[in-house]
Amino acid sequence: MSISAKRRVDYSALVDYIQEENIRKTNHLLEEMIPKLVEYLQVTVAATEESAKECVQQAFLNVYERILGGKLNDPKSLLSYMMMTARNEYFNQYRKNGRLISDEFVTSSISEPAEQIDRLVEQERKELLFECIGELDDESQMFILYFINHPDCTTKEASDYFSLSEANVRTKKYRITHQLHSLFKMKEAVKDI
């Protein structure tokens, strides 16, 4: 993967701009930060653009309240804090929506009980998979989520996308998949205890 050096933006100034009520400068930094956070959620947790935008907006509102209340301890780590808050918001929404779907499914479905159980088990397995993906390093998350988001992708296409040889793509995919499989089995065994 080719990595180019980009100018790092100091988002800690955003805390000052918000506290000073400098709307123009606040909006300028937010215009840079928000698309990065949306993309971060799309890559790390396979969020849709719409759900990523919703989660980032809610995360920013939460952080905004903390900034106004003087509760943000380290303005230098604002971007990391926003990333963590957006990610947590995504998982909260995912769990919340999953429960709503399951509750609605159980009360209104006319399908067989065995089908209901299969669907609930599938939902639990999907949540467990995303939990396991969340434990991978960022590069591995981005790599495996690319394949999840592009299931028909060929090795050649992935090779071009990640600027790796086809052999390296296959090897990396195998290693990450194996690591995910081990994590999944371990978590599944712990859950069953």
Quaternary assembly: single chain
Number of strand elements: 0
The N- and C-terminal alpha carbons lie at a distance of: 41 Å
| pLDDT < 50 stretches | 1-7, 99-111
Return Rg in Å.
Answer: 20 Å
Number of helices: 8
Level of helix content?
over 70%
Written as H for each helix and E for each strand, in order along the chain, the element string is HHHHHHHH
Count of the separate structural domains: 2
Q: Estimate the global geometry from the Cα principal axes.
A: globular
Mean pLDDT: 79
Beta-strand content: under 5%
Structural class: mainly alpha
The description of the largest β-sheet is:
none
Which terms would index this structure?
about 190 residues, mainly alpha, Arc Repressor Mutant, subunit A, 8 helices, about 80% helix, about 0% strand, globular, disordered N terminus, RNA_pol_sigma_r2, RNA_pol_sigma-70-like, transcription, RNA_pol_sigma_r3/r4-like
Describe this structure in words.
The protein has 193 residues and is an all-alpha fold. The protein has 2 domains: 10-108; 113-193, Arc Repressor Mutant, subunit A, CATH 1.10.10.10. 78% of the residues lie in helices and 0% in strands. It is built from 8 helices and no strands. The protein has helices spanning 12-19, 23-45, 49-68, 78-108, 113-134, 138-149, 155-162, 166-192. Helix 3 packs across helix 4 (78-108) and helix 5 crosses helix 8 (166-192). The protein starts with 11 loop residues before the first helix and ends with a helix.
